[in-house]
Amino acid sequence: MRSLIALTIALATILPSLSSLGRPLAVSPDNTLRSKESHYRDSIADLGYRLYFGDSTLEAQPVRAMLLIAEASHLGDPRADNNLAFILLNGDSTFRDPQRALTLFRRAADAGLPTAMAQLADLYRSGTVCPPDTDAASKLYLDAAARGLRDAEIKLIAMCRPKWIRTAPDSLLHFAQSIYPRIAPTAAVEMLRIVADTPYSISSTDSIPPSATALAILGDAKARGLGTPYDYSQSLLLFFRAARLGDPSAQFIIAETLDLTPDVLIPIASALQQPLSDEELTPGYWYERAAAHGITDAKNAYARLLPTVRQPH
After folding, report:
1. Which is nearest to 238 in space by CA: 216, 258, 259, 205?
2. What is d(CA 106, CA 143) in angstroms, rounded to the nearest whole number?
3. Which terminal residue of the chain, N or C, has fewer Cβ atoms less than 10 Å from its own Cβ?
4. How far are the Cα atoms of 152, 169, 180, 232 from residue 248, in angstroms, in the given order?
């Protein structure tokens, strides 16, 4: 706290001319002034962070750097909030203030900064600065991943995989479908692999095991290279395994593929536990099985696999 008081005093003493820039933007309708203020804020935030650590062109000047970053934070720059929080949490003991860092991470995360979301999630996950809260951490990691921070998915998997293994396959499948393909495809693929490998007892011959649908979505992921490396042969194998297990979307996709390329399944035959039957090489066999579950076109097939993705008309 002393360090922040010292910074506040220093800012008031050394930078009095900047006080007018701290007023809310709403009081001035002048777009030019707003643009200049935003540019100034961004510039001192970037310079401050560079000055704190130093680089090949700048000698590290931690005190001056903190003044600049604190001023940018005061002017409402989420990146400055995040950088200041990082330094207050991990930097020199002179500036260390974990509770203030927590507040700043929250403010930057609320402003939509994915790096702040992930770092705040780290604090909730570890429980070193605030009480542990894995649910809050999971949500923040997902929000960060949805904004393009792929490292957040890796952290989410590391934290949640043991819990996912204990989760009922149908529930885990629904969760994976809710975040694939747009929010967190890598995490979704990990969940789908767990579902695909989990034995599941079905109550009737009409039921579709979660493992079948999981395999089908994994086939889509391989076909797109989403959350896993692209591999057409593996995609085809996954779709076929899903079709055999009774997933109607996979059955329709296999039928259409056979319509276009009749011998497409031959190369994957060696990877199958059961040999291909003559009827499995026939599109009509798979069309009929898919239709029994109401899947008669590609749009419906993918709408069932990926319910959160808007299908083209």
Report:
1. 216
2. 13
3. C
4. 33, 18, 19, 20
